[in-house]
Amino acid sequence: MGGLREECGVFGIISKENTDVAASTYYGLFALQHRGQESCGIVVNNGGAFSDYKDTGLVNDVFTADRLHKLGTGNMAVGHVRYGTTGGKGRINAQPIVVENIKGHTALAHNGNLTNYSELRRDLELGGAIFHTTNDTEVISYIITQERLTSDSIEEATVKAMSRIKGAYSLVIMSSSKLIAVRDPKGFRPLCYGVTEDGSYVIASESCAIDSVGAKFIRDVLPGEIIVFTKDSINYIDTHCNTEKQSFCVFEYIYFSRPDSQIEGKTVQSCRVRAGEFLAKEHSVQADVVIGVPDSGLDAAIGYSRESGIPYEIGFIKNKYIGRTFISPGQTTREDGVRIKLNVISDVVKGKRVVLIDDSIVRGTTCRRIVGLLREAGATEVHMRVSAPPFLNPCYYGTDIDSKENLIACNYTLAEITTMIGVDSLGYLSLEDAMSLAGEEMKDKFCTACFNGAYPTEISTNTYTNLYNQENSSKNIED
Amino acid sequence: MGGLREECGVFGIISKENTDVAASTYYGLFALQHRGQESCGIVVNNGGAFSDYKDTGLVNDVFTADRLHKLGTGNMAVGHVRYGTTGGKGRINAQPIVVENIKGHTALAHNGNLTNYSELRRDLELGGAIFHTTNDTEVISYIITQERLTSDSIEEATVKAMSRIKGAYSLVIMSSSKLIAVRDPKGFRPLCYGVTEDGSYVIASESCAIDSVGAKFIRDVLPGEIIVFTKDSINYIDTHCNTEKQSFCVFEYIYFSRPDSQIEGKTVQSCRVRAGEFLAKEHSVQADVVIGVPDSGLDAAIGYSRESGIPYEIGFIKNKYIGRTFISPGQTTREDGVRIKLNVISDVVKGKRVVLIDDSIVRGTTCRRIVGLLREAGATEVHMRVSAPPFLNPCYYGTDIDSKENLIACNYTLAEITTMIGVDSLGYLSLEDAMSLAGEEMKDKFCTACFNGAYPTEISTNTYTNLYNQENSSKNIED
Amino acid sequence: MGGLREECGVFGIISKENTDVAASTYYGLFALQHRGQESCGIVVNNGGAFSDYKDTGLVNDVFTADRLHKLGTGNMAVGHVRYGTTGGKGRINAQPIVVENIKGHTALAHNGNLTNYSELRRDLELGGAIFHTTNDTEVISYIITQERLTSDSIEEATVKAMSRIKGAYSLVIMSSSKLIAVRDPKGFRPLCYGVTEDGSYVIASESCAIDSVGAKFIRDVLPGEIIVFTKDSINYIDTHCNTEKQSFCVFEYIYFSRPDSQIEGKTVQSCRVRAGEFLAKEHSVQADVVIGVPDSGLDAAIGYSRESGIPYEIGFIKNKYIGRTFISPGQTTREDGVRIKLNVISDVVKGKRVVLIDDSIVRGTTCRRIVGLLREAGATEVHMRVSAPPFLNPCYYGTDIDSKENLIACNYTLAEITTMIGVDSLGYLSLEDAMSLAGEEMKDKFCTACFNGAYPTEISTNTYTNLYNQENSSKNIED
Amino acid sequence: MGGLREECGVFGIISKENTDVAASTYYGLFALQHRGQESCGIVVNNGGAFSDYKDTGLVNDVFTADRLHKLGTGNMAVGHVRYGTTGGKGRINAQPIVVENIKGHTALAHNGNLTNYSELRRDLELGGAIFHTTNDTEVISYIITQERLTSDSIEEATVKAMSRIKGAYSLVIMSSSKLIAVRDPKGFRPLCYGVTEDGSYVIASESCAIDSVGAKFIRDVLPGEIIVFTKDSINYIDTHCNTEKQSFCVFEYIYFSRPDSQIEGKTVQSCRVRAGEFLAKEHSVQADVVIGVPDSGLDAAIGYSRESGIPYEIGFIKNKYIGRTFISPGQTTREDGVRIKLNVISDVVKGKRVVLIDDSIVRGTTCRRIVGLLREAGATEVHMRVSAPPFLNPCYYGTDIDSKENLIACNYTLAEITTMIGVDSLGYLSLEDAMSLAGEEMKDKFCTACFNGAYPTEISTNTYTNLYNQENSSKNIED
């Protein structure tokens, strides 16, 4: 069910000729919609002339046929979907960001989070910089622009900029003549590329977006790698590759990415099925049926069923029209939310011992309501299995895993949570199993900070506060 | 996947006191959204004063919080979701229809189709009637109004009206003081009712809508039955019950209704699983994996897997944001449609013999594309199983099963279709099995017209034509 | 300034060929916008197939280029602008009304008000009629349809219907092949027609709409006249002409119609200038400057200036963007309304004795505020002159002149009103002068009911109440 | 009638307490709407926290009650209306611009045009600056931010910045605690301030906006003056005052400003009336009636009438609903535009010799059509008088007076123009009279560049090109 949210998805395309790159970007963003529902944007590059449109809303609300048409044709485009807080600031913070510097226009789309954002921004401000947004993407633009003044090319400037920015970043950068993929040296977030039959190259956060435009997946962008695409050439820059230990976010497998995407050679679905198998081994139980919470618990439920031999069934119907702005009119509370979104198929659970699989428990409230629905429908026992270890620490690398006070696992014991959510038993995936989801070769390549606090980068003491309080800060009041 | 469309869903509520009946109706319609996506409407009755809002669009697009609020509170409400053709006529044909006659306001919401619509309308016009819509609902309003002139109550008028109207109709009627459920004597379309904890009665096309407002399901409205709810009483009128043999639409189980709804004592999902089991018996095959086309093929796939022992897997990811107005910009064709909506999880099918389950084949084009996606992803064999018998005849009872020229099964042999859609084998559910989906006791109670042409009512020779050409007819040109 | 509102404007066009009649109707309605700002609609007739669009809002908000395009081409069209109450009922009551009867489609656009609406509706309901609106236009449709059953043509039916309907009505009726102009025998409301260079005939409430489509004005439709246009012929029916004494609404000259329109051979502006001249004779005063309240007081101010020799000046600037939905946010009250809409040009009035001309005083509140603005700006004396006699009686013929309790002149003496609105002197146009506005030949042809209560038709005792309470009535509660 | 457009209007307010400053700004912008119809924006400052909303569209379309409410209360606000080109760039260029620098948030609203924009921007880019817009306002923000690094206050930074920026600028600047009015040393554009009864100070482009919020006009901001308002103090900085000769734009009197505004001690209307009087002296003619083209020709027509003794009449009705997005559907051309907007009152001109007054002739096309309407309506002679001298040079100070090829007066003689627009005689206001419009004391204080090419500032040779081609430039293509 999930209370977690990914921050962003990025997409870029470069073709040999002037074509409808806006339409391809639209399809790509639509496939990445699960990575961000707050705002989206597309920038088209037609021989150095940029046209763009960004707004809050889902991809197919923001981009009507008319608006796509107005973007015109081009030989390159960059797109972005974003999760973020609602409100007035939403539109100004939509990406891709488009700026003009001494060398012409540049567009940037960014997925991740800089851990030295505050320091970088302060330094820039001390140099006379002005900021229009509270995005770290604008900071990246400035850094690259500054380095550009003493570099021979935008890629050289990008290499230098990567020595100054810290944290998680998967970027697509578009200049007048180049499309550039950049992944941070620790490879926190995914980024990959592919090619279409007519020779257009496509960069995307996930391979499902490459599939959606009919392109062939080539490979992941390597941690630290810069790939520079022009109309006629591809240039791979590995200056920052293998300079640091990889720290890929395991939640990309468990929750964020789409099941049909492949990352580091594994489809996300197969890793989720494996999580279910691990759970069945670790936390076996006598039961009559295994059901998953749609959509992200279904694969692990199949895995649990396969390993345990307990039959898999579809136990919930999720209203497929809920997509967007479901309003809660009148006296209705969030309680109703679950009822409207999910309904139990009573046949499946009535008089039965149920194994219920979900991918995470954040605050526990949604979970308690779902268990309540099963009890109402006549389940005699409910055994909850969670296909991830418990969260114990906030994330600074581009997800919204919250501060400790809101994480149920930080504040209650397993026994207490079992009681609170009303289940007969509760089992989490072990950290070790989580590390094994994608096979032995990935075992040491994950970030485990949210589980065990082992942050792979230095964390500025006030990073977290700064980041989320930026908008309302008034740095001084004498001005 | 389906190319079929249900025509409508209806909802009504009556409470003891003035409450937020608009919100309940909104939830109910949201749960019935799958029955009609073209337009929707809600009418609130506050002590005889009616307020209403109707428009084209999905329930949560049409009804913003502000619009629901403007409808005000009341002790009764009626709602409707409708499938229909697009275009200028859309809004005027939205339901519920609200009219005023000598006895005050009446609202009607209708699911079904009158087979003697043309005759009734002509007779009314000969008597001086004027029509604002091309809905048969307006004809029903007139007939009840006419009968009301010589009846002591609206229910007496309704009993008389039922002797004049023919075909399929599940109605919710709201007068100033009564809420009335009406189901045609053959019981073509579902209709049921329930009650909330605080004593409000709820009428709905399907039980999932009753669940969605937290009410308890009581039972189906019987074929031919009229149930009259007032603030203080319930009156059951069985004048038209058991006057005709039941002809329930089997496609309500196979395709139209939501899996969590129960009809005639069976959940829809269990009937679909049973269809899969029947298919496995009838059309067994050596294979490695069973997958269903989301969403309506999934249950039958589980049934096929269970009966055959071939493992069930999730083979497709359906983009969950596709909901509504997905536009196809630029050079893209309908081909792309499938790619954007569905993506194959290649791991699941690569190098495997696949059993593919869907609920129907209408024209065959969508089917061929899906099979193509599986082949591309590396499936070595694709065995298609369809959880319904082939369509051979148009439907006149409220679905859009098309004229013969567009039905693939009318024009090609099984072998030809097998080749056309590119599968290694193809098997349909037998008519006999279809009749057994909901158990022995329902076996003789289905309409089988679309499969074998045995129409349970007389069909006016020009019914079909009339109905669909109504809008553009200019009856005479001397006026 | 005015607190009065006209109820409607009508427009129709018939051309020799299929052309963009929707665009012409759009222009015509735009020119008639002052006659109704609540809703508008256009119906296009393409060889008997009707397409229509209606909604609440101004003409150029409702009709985007896209919507006009969707109406398609045709050889006839009818349009309507309407003033009415806001709220949910708005859209359903928008005109033209389009209905289908035994002879095909008919569209009706109506300006006026039936005085026997309640009786007619009741009779129709007793015959089994159902109503979708609370418009008297729907009643007219029914009556014509009923008469059509025993008539050879729609025009014959219209002649008969005119014997049954009473009150004020200027109609444009469009059948599959005819466009018909109808004006009630007393000629309460204006209606005229013209012809374009390419032989299209145009019917409109006012000649300014005929000008706006580049047509030549021909003449007013006569009181009681029916004019039937077909592609090839014009037929004038005078059965109801000269059957009753004319009762033209003098307020069409004083306030409702556009100054550039001509009615009964006089331009509206010239009549208003004459009103100013009359006022100067009746109510002369020593003063330094004459100013009018924009827009409808300007012409009379020029007339006053001309007759009196006191210089005319532009004393107020009216914000020209106020057009539509000016919102009053925050703590602001209606007081602000005047300030935002009107600003005084202080130079013009500072230290001067001002003659202030407006066309009416309804409740007196707006007037008092305007006088206040002049005082603030330094006017030493303010002498108000009103270019109409005082209202003393409600209107039942299609305007919203209110019930007596809200008419200031019904409840206070001239001296009291002078004090209440804060002027040094106050003078109304005399009834005799009002009757002379349009020249001697029109002198006996006006309705004077709102001034002296001499209603030219019988008024049903409960007409007024019925009409305005219709929507919320629940006729009986047993149903 | 005019083909000229002002570029912008600015507004600011500072109050003692937290109040509904957004509503006041809304009223102020509404009064300034004539200065810019393309986009608008409001920024509210609540103790250093800024909230803003900007979009393309008119003030009362962009700011619904809901959106104003979301801006919240505050003790300061800044607003802007802007004229600009349509299209994708529109929204990003809307003002006020809100940026954050080392000292916190700053909002800027700007009316005018920097003549050294290109040089300043290039220098900033060479220093590593990035730009989000193509506004010179962003350049001003940067310059002030740079100077702020070495200044003790924002006002000190502003004084320094004024030495670097050249051209026309009337600014409202809002920092966390200060509201600042700035007018360039030549005083090209107007700027003034006032105070409300409760002690709130208001800055606006024109006094009509001060009136609209019920404030008292105090005086114009002096050329070169900076006025710094805080909650508790006002500080007047005259460092740049009297450093240059004033060059006020005479078109503010003739065309741009609202007649009820006062500038340099004169109401705009009185100057326009005087222009008419001058015209009557310079270009007398035998005629029967004087009419003005609404709205900006009316005052001069009254002046001409007064001086000449020829009667003034209202000869045109302008459709008052035209305000905004009037669409031209179908086959209609711009020709129709005039017909729809303006209609002649034939009585007034039929058989008469007409003096027609307008404020300018830009390309001559609109003018020719208006004259055509008068001829059609029966005018026997048309004598055109223009209340401004002919344009012969482009403007670089914030209006869109076009390049020479589009200015009719640059390419044709008086006799040729007379023939082209179809009049019997044509007379322009002389340059000397134009300089005398606002009295002797203003005579040497006007910019006359558009009439005689005497530009009061240095003009960079490529200023004009740069400015208007900015958006599509791709500075280099190697990046």
Indicate the percent of residues in helices of chain A: 25-40%
Q: Which segments of chain A are poorly predicted (pLDDT under 50) over 5 or more consecutive residues?
A: 85-89, 330-334, 463-477
- Number of discrete helical segments of chain A: 19
The proportion of residues in beta strands of chain A is: 25-35%
CATH fold naming of the largest domain in chain A: Glutamine Phosphoribosylpyrophosphate, subunit 1, domain 1
Count of extended strands of chain A:
23
CATH class of the largest domain in chain A: Alpha Beta
The number of domains of chain A:
2
Computed structural class of chain A: alpha+beta
Shape of chain A: globular
Arrangement of strands in the largest sheet of chain A:
3-2-4-1-10-9-11
Rg estimate of chain A, integer Å: 23 Å
Question: Which terms would index this structure?
Answer:
homotetramer; 479 residues; alpha+beta; Glutamine Phosphoribosylpyrophosphate, subunit 1, domain 1; Rossmann fold; 2 domains; seven-stranded antiparallel sheet; 19 helices; 23 strands; 25% strand; globular; disordered C terminus
